[in-house]
Amino acid sequence: MSQKEHDKILLAHGGGGQLSDQLIRKHILPRFANNTLSELTDSAKLNLDSKSICFTTDSYVVKPLFFPGGDIGKLAVCGTINDLAVSGARPVAMSLALIIEEGLAFEVLDKILDSIAATAAQNNVAIVTGDTKTVETGAADQIFINTAGIGVRLEGVELGFSNIKAGDKILINGSIGDHGMTVMSLRQDIGFKSQLKSDCAALADLTCKLLTETHGVKFMRDPTRGGLAATLNEIAQQTSFDIRINDADIPINPTVQAAADALGFDVLNIANEGKFVAVVAPEIADTCVNICRQHPLGQQAAIIGEIVKTDDAPVVETITKIGGRRIVQMPYGRELPRIC
Amino acid sequence: MLQRIKNAQLLMNAACGVTGRPINIMEVCGTHTVSIFRNGIRGMIPKSMKLLSGPGCPVCVTHQGYIDTVLELADRNDCLIATYGDMIRVPGKGGSLETKKTAGNVRIVLSSEDALQLAKENPSKTVVFIAVGFETTTPATAVAVKQAANEGIENFCILSNHKLVVPAMQALLSDENNRIDAFLCPGHVSVIIGYGAFKPITKQFRKPCVVAGFEPMQIIEGLAEICRQIIEGKPEAKTIYTAVVTEHGNQIAQGIISECFEPVDGYWRGLGKIPKSTLQLKEKYSKFDAFKRFGVTEKPENDTTGCRCGEVLCGLIDPPQCELFGRVCEPLTPVGPCMVSSEGACAAWFKYSKREKQNK
Fold it and tell me: Residue A264: its chain B contacts at CB < 8 A?
C-alpha cells in the first residue's frame, strides 16, 4: 500500500492496517500526547486518588459540525465533563471514539481534533484511550463522536433528588436556549441567519468551586436536550414536589427570544450546552449566585424559582411576566417551526 | 402595567355584570391562543368570561382530504414536497408527511421563496409547495408563483389551500348553535386585510371585532375593548394594534393576491364546505397549479377517527371534552390537526393547562 498522504478519510483508515496506524500516529497521538495514551495498550491504566468515582458516556451527532461558539469536538468534551460536573465530580480522564464517514476531509477532522485537544487541555482532562472506525458513505453523517469520562467525586458532596426539600431555591448559571437556537438556525431545514452563539462550555471549574465553597447544594443537572423545562419536570417528578418559577427571573438573551418567537418555539424547551440547574438550600442561595457571578460562566446567574410542597401530583408552574400562571410541561420531542 | 391590567379587569367584570350571563370571546388566531396560554391570561379574566379558540391555525383548518392529496403527491418519484414544518405531522389516511420525509422527497421550508430555490436546485424533480395559511402567507406564495412565471421555472408548482378568514367567521356565526359573542381578530392577517375587512361581520351579526397584537398586554386590552363595546351596546370593527394594522391594510399585498388567486368554495376541517373561502390560482397561472398539473382533486371525505377538532374549531367544545384528548391523542401521537401544530388549540391546552392529575 502506498505511503502517500491522503486528503480524505478512506474506508481503509479504519481497517487496522497501515492507514489506520498513520491516522492514529499522525493525526491523533500528537494532539493528545500523555503517558497513558502513548502506550497504545488495549485499555488505559489509571491511578486515582479516590475510591469514589463517577463514570459517564455520551455520543455526539450534531449537525452542522461547526457552529458559532463551538463544534462537535468541543461539544464532545464539554458534554461529558458537564455530566461529571453536575454529579459532583472533578473530571480526570476521558475516552474518545470516532466513527468517521469515508470521504471526510482530513482538514475537517484535524480541526475537530484540535478543538478536542484544546478543550480537554483547558479543563485538565486527559484523553487516555480511544478508538477510530470508518464507515461507508451514507452510513454516518461525516463524523460521530463518543466520549466516556471518569471523575473523582468531591469529598463530602452527596448530590441527589432525595436531598431536595420544600423551600429550596433553583439556581441557573446563565441564559437559556443559546445552543439549541444557534444550531437550529443553521440547519439546512431552517436556513435562518442571525447573530446567535452557542453557550457550549465545560462547567466543572465552576461547579467544583460552588460545591467546595458552600454546603447546601442539593442537586445539579445540565439542561441539555429538552431544555430547562425537561430538567425541572424531571426534578418535580422524582421528588413529588411542585416547582414554581418566575418568567421574569429567567435569563434569556434577546436574540434567542426573538429567534424562538419567530419560529414559534418555547425557549424553556431549547437545549443548552453550558448551563447547569442547581437546587440549593435557601440560606446559601445568595452566596451561590455571588460565586457564580464571579466566574466567566456564571455572569448572568440567577435564582429562578423554588421547590414547593404539594399533596397532588407534582407540576412545574411559572408566573408569567404579566402575573398570570401557566404549567410548564415536559417537552414532547422535536420542535417544528410554525407557518406564520 | 399593573394599573392597565387592573383597568382592563374592571371593564371585563363590568361587561359580565351587564350581560348577566357568560361572555364567549373567540380568538381567531392560533398565535393568540398560544400567547393566551403562555402568559396565563385565562387565569386573569373573570370566571364568567370564556375564551374560545377559533379556526385560525392553518394546520388545524386543513381538511383531511387535502392531506390525503398531499400524501398522494409525496409518493410520486417525480415530486419533491416543500412544506412548512408543522404540516409534516398531520396524519392522513396513509401516514403523514413525516413518514414520507425519511424517503427523502419531503423538505421543510420556511417560505415560498425557499421552495422556489429548491426547485432551482433540483431540476429533475417537480417541487410542489404545500401552500397553506391565511392572508398572511398568501402574498408570499403569490410572489413565488409570479417569480416562477417570470423566470420560466417550470418544475415549480403549488397545491393551494390558502384560506380566507372572514368567510370562516361568517360561517361560524351563521350556525345557529354558535355561542360566540365577539371576536378577538388576528393581528398578522389584519396587517394585510385591514380591520375594515371585519365591518361586514359587525354590520350583519352585530358582534364586536377587535384586532390585537400578540404581546400579552395587547391581548388583555383587546379583550377590554370588546367588553367596552358590549357595555355600550355598540359593536364595531376596531384595532388596538395601531402600530401595524390600518383600516384598509396592505393594498399592495392585496393586489398581488387578487392578481394570482380567486376565491372558490373550499373545505375546512369541522366547518365543511364554505362558499368563496379558499384561494385557487387564476387561469393565467394555472400551469403552476399542482391540482391541475397532476390531475388530482381534494377528496371531500371526513375522517372517521372520532376526532372532534372540528367542534373545537367552531368553539362548540373545549379540547378536554373530546374523548380522544390526552388519551390516544397527544402531541407525540396526534389524531387530529389541532394537536399537531404548536398553535393548535388542543396542543396549547395540552401543553399549558393543568390536566387531571394522576394518582401519585
Answer: 31, 34, 86, 342-343
